[in-house]
Amino acid sequence: MNSTVVADVVVVAPKKKHRQHLPQDIIDIFDSLFSESENTRLICGGNEPLYLPAKGLYKNKQTNYHQVIFAHGFYASALHEIAHWLVAGPQRRLQEDYGYWYCPDGRTVQQQAEFEKVEIYPQALEAILAHAAGFRFRISADNLSGKPVDRPAFAQKVHQRACDKLQQGLSPRMQLLVDHLQDFYQTSECFPQNLKNANMADW
Predict the structure, then answer these.
(1) pTM of structure
(2) Entry's InterPro entries (predicted)?
């Protein structure tokens, strides 16, 4: 096993090169784990992500299963939407977009602070999933046309929550997915060490 020292932090590299991060792979992994046990499938969508419970209409089509729909075919969007699904409890998963109202881009300072407060936990889970898959994680402040965002401070909060969650233990759904991501992408030798030692400047 190789390792590199960067600014006194040891970053462990896996023996083998990671697979490419293809959207179909994360779809296949997710569906193999949850399509039957949770009646939920991961769907490659269009411009906007969405969660639809069973019987909801998407592109004029009704399904008898729940849909976690990610945007643009982006792997990062898939992980982000999966993280929100992992946060949501059983009753929330019976509501479109889990019953939450989304404050759009262009938020005020106060609105952005509230947005970041509720986003810390799902993005912490997303960071764990990304590192388990050997995929570069970037925080999503999601306020391009609003007030400037203190990205380093937000990244630090997300990182701390991710590390705390690893120490406390993952939920059964989360642990199952993390285990399969590590197996598929062969990251067991470098996860979770690389998450704990992550450089916040890269987030």
Answers:
(1) 0.86
(2) EpmC
